[in-house]
Design goal:
With about 170 residues, the chain is of the alpha+beta class. It has a single domain, classed as Haem-degrading domain (Beta-Lactamase, 2-Layer Sandwich), CATH 3.30.450. Helix content is about 45%, strand content about 15%. A four-stranded antiparallel beta sheet has the order 2-1-4-3. The radius of gyration is 20 Å and the shape is globular. The termini are far apart.
């Protein structure tokens, strides 16, 4: 390869890299995370799981595994619908645990990973599940636990988890 061709390729690469950086949106400051509250009780956990199961039926999603964890990520309640794929059991628990421990929806990690670049750092966070379907459970402005749903598409799992999370006040 000639010297002038190498120089031209280098200039093209540098100009593309410059454009990528110039087009990146400005960073927005992150909101402070919600504080942890008292852990969710069994009755509320069962209500959240029941609402999630009803949502699965309503939207016609495949059978789901539903996990409810306390604010420390420890399992409080688990429900597996008949004929749920077995791989969804641990995934639901991991989604819920991720949402509780990191105080944010698991979709945040999915989006960061999908963005590539610096978002790939998500892979180094122990316990961060980068798949939609895990949501913190909030009561009185505090995180009391989290719900994880698995069995359908990521979007269906997110909708199912939201139905369960919406029961907690």
């Amino acid at each position: 390869m000639s010297k002038s061709l190498r120089l031209l390729l280098l200039l093209v690469a540098l100009s593309c890299a410059g454009r990528t950086e110039a087009q990146a949106p400005p960073a927005t400051p992150a909101l402070p995370p919600l504080p942890y509250g008292a852990p969710i009780g069994l009755d509320d956990a069962k209500k959240a799981a029941a609402a999630a199961v009803e949502e699965v039926k309503k939207i016609g999603a495949p059978p789901n595994a539903i996990a409810i964890v306390d604010h420390g990520g420890f399992l409080i309640y688990f429900e597996r619908m008949d004929n749920t794929q077995l791989g969804s059991v641990e995934v639901a628990i991991d989604k819920a645990r991720s949402a509780a421990l990191f105080r944010r929806p698991s979709k945040v990690f999915e989006d960061a990973l999908a963005g590539g670049g610096a978002g790939m750092r998500i892979l180094a966070l122990h316990g961060a599940m980068p798949v939609e379907g895990g949501l913190p459970l909030v009561a009185g402005g505090k995180i009391v636990g989290a719900i994880g749903a698995s069995g359908g598409t990521a979007q269906q799992d997110g909708q199912v988890a939201k139905a369960g999370a919406d029961t907690i006040k």
